[in-house]
Design a protein that fits this description.
The protein is an alpha/beta fold. It has a domain of 185 residues: Rossmann fold (3-Layer(aba) Sandwich), CATH 3.40.50. It is built from 7 helices and 16 strands. The strands form 4 sheets. Strands 10-9-8-11-14-16-15 form a 7-stranded mixed β-sheet, sandwiched between helices. The structure holds S-adenosylmethionine (SAM). The site of S-adenosylmethionine has 19 residues, from strand 9.
């Protein structure tokens, strides 16, 4: 399992009983986590001291016990700070997936490597959410295209870019499949492609996204716009319906997918070294 090791402002304090106890700056949260199937380690009193508690009601929607003002969380990518605006909505998410910091480091290393070879890396971030990977790539010298089908999410990502005084990301509100199909027709080429597709998603015109059905074609098309030599690729999935073995099988049947790549799980670790597996990760 891969997990981030360089957070100072974020910490997974404990997990269990399908919830996780986390620290974002000086705010402690207690929110649902279906993957946390073990027993918690910390005593109940400590869990009850969380500042923010999310109670799920229906279709993953729910309520927070209280609403606090938007707050900013910082991650240090080497010596470069990346700042994120976090806020509470109708879902348990706050605008960041802290385990993804392990990928931000990978992206930064790859971009820096290409840069040192005299190449300005072009990076495509699909299903890009609030832009963690886009910011990491941009701050590591890449020209970034950020694609997400939900306008309000792209607005949030742009606010994160503003917070970091980044002005050079290309923002696209579009269905990831459609964007990639158009890029293939145009003959575009990227040095890095990152994708974090959800299990179910929406396209702008209601054309739904289903991970198990739509991923192979998307990956196949993405490979057509990935540079043949100077390249990197990251695919994350967070679906219990698609175990790592099946994901690898799916990729081995995908035309053009390389034979050698890194396949692992992505997660978080608490102080006592107990690990929480959150998703699958394929990279090369
Ligand atoms: C799991 S989140 C990605 C999290 C992100 N990679 C990170 O670490 O911060 C999935 C994102 O996919 C977007 N999305 C859903 N369906 C989409 C589609 N068909 N095309 C593009 N984006 C889509 C959602 O709006 C959401 O922002």
């Amino acid at each position: 399992m891969i997990y981030p090791t360089k957070w100072t402002e974020y910490e997974l304090l404990d997990f269990g009983n399908q919830r996780k106890l986390e620290r974002f700056g000086n705010i402690i949260t207690n929110r649902p986590e279906p993957q946390a199937v073990s027993k918690p380690s910390l005593p109940l009193e400590q869990w009850e001291q969380a500042d923010l508690y999310f109670r799920e009601s229906k279709n993953q929607k729910g309520n927070w016990n209280k609403q606090i003002q938007d707050f900013v969380l910082e991650y240090k990518l080497g010596s470069i700070p990346i700042r994120f605006k976090l806020n509470q909505g109708a879902f348990k998410h706050l605008g960041i997936f802290p385990e993804q910091a392990a990928n931000w480091e990978f992206i930064s290393d790859r971009c820096t490597y290409l840069h040192d070879k005299g190449i300005t890396p072009k990076v495509l971030n699909l299903f890009a959410y609030t832009g963690g990977a886009s910011l990491a790539a941009n701050l590591s010298g890449a020209e970034v295209t950020h694609v997400d089908s939900v306008k309000s999410v792209v607005t949030w990502a742009r606010q994160n870019a503003d917070l970091n005084r980044i002005k050079t990301i290309r923002w696209i509100v579009e269905d990831a499949r459609r964007f990639v199909e158009k890029s293939v027709r145009r003959g575009d080429l990227y040095h890095g492609i990152i994708m974090d597709p959800p299990v179910f998603g929406l396209g702008p015109k209601g054309k739904n996204w289903k991970l198990n059905r739509d991923l192979p074609e998307l990956v196949q098309n993405a490979l057509k716009i990935l540079h043949p030599q100077h390249r990197f690729f990251i695919l994350n999935t967070y679906s219990p319906q698609l175990p790592l073995s099946e994901l690898k099988q799916m990729l081995s049947n995908t035309t053009g997918f390389p034979k050698q790549y890194e396949s692992t799980t992505l997660g978080l670790k608490i102080l006592s070294d107990k690990r929480l597996e959150l998703g699958n990760l394929i990279r090369f």
